[in-house]
């Protein structure tokens, strides 16, 4: 006799299975879609962090090399007859920039004539690469451990000292080489840059690892302590070294999967860079934790609903054949992605309860999906200020450039940095600094139009993108910049205290200065530094010989 179930049991089982299938299908469909979205968004964020780190490393090296170049042009070095004066000059540089662990002036024979703290003075270092390369021309060496200086420099940590060498020939007025100006730059500054990059991400930075990898032999120069000095073999590293910044989920040598962002340091201005690759990773289980939690919620909801509907089905077996068919058809259409309501049946209470419960389930699932949309929205906004973040900025730039190209308009990028913010943060504390940033964000929103954007890049740096006409770009942007500076110059009240800050702005115009949005941001940042150097609290356009001051 074939096995069979009575109608009540069959209906109860069918109802439970239907709800489980519906919940499971929606769970995996929605979580898979969310996984792809989160991987793209967080991956792009990690790649952007890598790019910021690479750019700051190259910018720092460019700055230090430039300072050595400038120092080598001073008459004190070009006519090296006063070693005591040379030492005072070198000690002054070290005092101003402590990252210079050792700076020395070496004569053409390789003898150290003067140096910071007198270290190595009188010794011959003609066989050292910093001299042999520096006497030929400007030389910047890769990271290496100290040799001569290991026992001469203070080292409280006891860890091996690592340096980056910078040296340039010094020539007199007749163009003759009279010596070499050499410097050892402490590698510890790279960790300071790492902390500055991770500070805005304080809620998640404990799960991030940053690596700096040498191009010559893929040696880890900066990273977790146990991996520094080891060679790194990693899928995607070669692509990054070919200047293709990217991100994705990668299996690392330890066998674990990490969401990983890659960026390549290709130099800054006239500094060609040392070919360092910056890698930022986050464990995949942490990156996708929200997706896993969402899937579990779906499955729990499906299991509980299955039990409820199985009980209802048991009591409704004799009258549900036709209504159940309609419900099953609607559920099938939902499974295929159609937006249809679950039919509501009146007259038979149990069937009506079943249909209402199913509709409630669909509503709950819909609300959960909307919650996911809200989560996605939060991923596009800065947690502290509520302003759009870099992810939202990337999306906006694509749409804004398309609109501007169609209408023949331009986009003016205003790179803002607050003058005096660090002093307020140090004096009144981080809570006051956070409150100040929130007030600044509110004023920035008030100064931009609805079709424009003001975003926080990190720390006290912001970026505004303005829609400007092709024939009045700088005039229109200058008006908005003046309004921004004037607004931010006005006093802020923080917990009963009145504080004031300034605002320096650098501007670059798309597509006049570049058609690459990343390049435009970099050019605006470069113009910002010009505003800082010109006295702060002013606007400077990229390529301009002057800046527009603002009294405030």
The CATH architecture name of the largest domain reads 2-Layer Sandwich
Name given to the CATH homologous superfamily of the largest domain? PAS domain
Percent of residues in beta strands: 15-25%
Low-confidence stretches: none
Map the helices and strands:
Elements: H1 7-72, H2 75-78, H3 83-96, E1 100-106, E2 112-115, H4 129-134, E3 139-140, E4 144-145, E5 162-171, E6 177-186, H5 188-198, E7 209-213, E8 220-222, H6 237-241, E9 246-251, E10 257-264, E11 277-283, H7 284-287, H8 289-316, H9 321-335, H10 349-378, H11 390-407, E12 410-419, H12 421-428, H13 430-447, E13 453-458, E14 461-468, H14 473-489, E15 492-494, E16 497-499, E17 502-510, H15 517-533, E18 538-541, E19 548-549
Parallel strand pairs: 17-18
Antiparallel strand pairs: 1-2, 1-6, 3-5, 4-5, 5-6, 7-8, 7-11, 9-10, 10-11, 12-14, 12-17, 13-14, 15-16, 18-19
Verbal overview:
The mean pLDDT is 79. The chain is elongated. The chain has helices at residues 7-72, 75-78, 83-96, 129-134, 188-198, 237-241, 284-287, 289-316, 321-335, 349-378, 390-407, 421-428, 430-447, 473-489, 517-533, and strands spanning 100-106, 112-115, 139-140, 144-145, 162-171, 177-186, 209-213, 220-222, 246-251, 257-264, 277-283, 410-419, 453-458, 461-468, 492-494, 497-499, 502-510, 538-541, 548-549. The chain has 3 domains: 45-287, 2-Layer Sandwich (Beta-Lactamase); 341-379; 381-541, Alpha-Beta Plaits (2-Layer Sandwich), CATH 3.30.70. The longest helix is centred in the first third of the chain and has 66 residues, at 7-72. Helix 1 runs parallel beside helix 9 and helix 12 (421-428) runs antiparallel to helix 13 (430-447). It is an alpha+beta fold. It contains 15 helices and 19 strands. It is 47% helix and 20% strand. The strands form 4 sheets. Strands 1, 2, 3, 4, 5 and 6 form a 6-stranded antiparallel sheet that branches. Strands 13-14-12-17-18-19 form a 6-stranded mixed sheet, sandwiched between helices. Strand 18 (538-541) and strand 19 (548-549) form a beta hairpin.
